[in-house]
Known about the structure:
- A hairpin with a 5-residue loop joins strand 2 (about 35-40) and strand 3.
- Residues about 1-5 have low confidence and may be disordered.
- The chain has two domains: about 10-100, no CATH class; about 105-205, no CATH class.
- The chain has about 210 residues and is mainly alpha-helical.
- It has seven helices and three strands, in the order βββααααααα.
- The protein is globular, with a radius of gyration of 20 Å.
Amino acid sequence: MSADTSADTPIPYPFEWTPVMEVPEKLRGLRERAQVDVRLPSGDTAVMVTRYKDVRSLFADARLSKNIARPGMARVSADNDLFVDPKIDGDPPHHTAMRGLVTRAFTARRIELLRPFAQSVTDELLDAMADGPKPAELNEALAFPLPILVICKLLGVPPEDRDKFRRLVDGFLSVTKLPPAEVEECRKGLWAYLADLIATKRKNPATT
């Protein structure tokens, strides 16, 4: 959501990382205000809505656009074109059609079939975390690799390509972590990899 310039100095967002279980200092007291001006990594300003009921109301309002490429929208990143890609349209009817295609892979039956794989991966990651350095970094040890590995399973990414796929996705989604040249390299690399994967699957269909 774009933001008008206010008298208050916008708060840098995302907030700085804090120790586990501690609330970021700049988050304290924000719920006393319905909305807060924030400055995104791109340098653009936006409005952060702080209250749950207000967020629910906004997402139920047809006047709220989810299209990240609309003119005047605040950019998340100045370097990553993913966040201003005009092909990513979060509004109906395009989004509705795309969602209909994707949801076929997420029926209750398909998700239940993934349960043994997800449990096995979770067990392996937790065992590796228990045997690794202390204290453990939960995001690196579990929260990031688990969904990536499940996505690899859904897409049919071969086990030997999973580290490469994870690196490309990590760079593809980078906001500030990587320099622009590396983000672009990962973006092109991911599209090229997916194109090759699709071509391979068409020649040799297989159940993932």
